[in-house]
Amino acid sequence: MPVKVTPPVPSARAEVHLWQGSNARCGPDDTRVLSPAERERAARLPNPVAARCYVTAHAALRRILGGHLGTAPERVRIGRGPCPLCGLTRHGPPVLAEPGCDLTFSLARSGAEWLLGIGRGHALGVDLERVRRTDVDAVCRAALSDAERKALLNCGHRPGGCPECFFRCWTRKEAVVKAWGAGVSADLRQVEVSAHRPGPVLVGHGTGCGARRWWRVRDLPVGSGRHAALAVPADVPVRPVVWRYWPG
Ligand SMILES: [Zn+2]
Ligand SMILES: [Zn+2]
Predict the structure, then answer these.
(1) Is residue 1 included in any domain, yes or no?
(2) Separation of 206 CA from ligand 2 center, angstroms?
(3) Which residue in 113, 121, 123 sits closest to 225, CA to CA?
(4) pLDDT of residue 2
(5) pLDDT digit string (tens) for 171-219?
(6) Residues, CB within 5 angstroms of ligand 2 (ion)
(7) For residue 8, is it within any domain?
(8) Whose atoms come closest to the Cα of 82: which ligand?
(9) In what order do the strands lie in the sheet with 113-120?
(10) In this structure, which residues have their CB less than 5 angstroms from ion ligand 1?
(11) Which has more pLDDT, 159 or 19?
């Protein structure tokens, strides 16, 4: 059965809508609304759980955006904006490529689950991670500043650091680099997120051209065994609103 969506959309700069879902109800109608490039990408994913999640998440994104635009989901144009570090669109952030529409979005997937943030007129980034076995030490070296590593290893919950603190730190960083648009090109060690402090936190980072950018980052309640964060520009006072989409 096709899922008919008439989504409420953010009506002002002060609202971010959050949609959480899983791959439980993936069907042929989901694949049908994807673009050829999205279908190819899903087919290339080696893990079938992740591939189903990719399909359901992107189908939901298209239905939600299409519902607002009054456009069939398969006709919604999603492109890439310029990378803020090098200007190339090849690896820039995904954007809605519809003239005159100021909706912005950020989509995150982890295992069988996804999280989508939709805003209006401002950048935003979300990240979702299921707590899982991770080589914390190796990831810490690549992604955490010296101060963050020290704070994590001495978090006091468990000798050598605990997964909760690690994933809180990680999701905050990912949310910021996705809001910024730099994604994998960003040096995560330069994005300090005060993981030892409860959110929301203010996070500043260099932009490669001498300027500093500031974000307000909050941890999101997405259920036990998961962590999620939302980053929005520090000068936009945002109230997130959460809907559950396709429960199961
Ligand atoms: Zn780049
Ligand atoms: Zn801890």
Answers:
(1) no
(2) 27
(3) 113
(4) 43
(5) 999 999 999 999 878 889 999 998 888 889 999 998 877 788 999 999 9
(6) 155, 157, 162, 165
(7) no
(8) 1
(9) 103-110, 113-120, 15-22, 239-244
(10) 83, 85-86, 185
(11) 19
Ligand 2: distance of its center to the CA of 165 in Å? 4
- Whether 84 is covered by a domain: the verdict is yes
Number of structural domains in the chain: 1
Ligand number nearest CA of 83 is 1
* pLDDT class of 142 with cuts at 50, 70, 90: confident
* 4 within a domain of the structure (yes/no): no
Structural domain containing residue 111: 15-244
Res 78 pLDDT > 70: yes
Q: Percent of the chain beyond pLDDT 70?
A: 94
| Distance of CA 152 from the midpoint of ligand 2 (Å) | 7
Any idea what the CATH number is for the domain that residue 236 is in? 3.90.470.20
